[in-house]
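FW: tagging you since you asked about this chain on Friday. Here's the raw sequence from the shared folder, copied in full. Didn't touch anything.
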Amino acid sequence: MSELIPYQGGGGLTRDSRRAGRAITRSRSFTQVRLAVVDDEADVTMQKVEALTSATGAGMGAVTRVAQAQKHLEALAPEVSGRLSFLADSHLLAVGDALQDLRRSLRNK
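HL: got it, structure written out here
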């Protein structure tokens, strides 16, 4: 015949074991949150770099178009080359200012 063993309840887990289990669960949750934050920050940084790269490329294209137009117009009217240079340089500075404004704006976001 077999002997019956009375139920002791709780499976023998001590208070320290339960406390340790909760601490491990909290630690894992905290780690998951930290990793999610890092992933989000990396995504934001990559988007900022992409936006700045795109804007810089557009600015370089605009400066190149103005320089080409300047050369063409100087060939038609060489006597206004100084004025055309002034306008082209002014355009270059404006593009540079716009890109600096974008950099400042991206830095603060």
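FW: Helices lie at 15-76, 81-107.
HL: agreed, and Residues 12-107 form one domain.
FW: great, closing this out.
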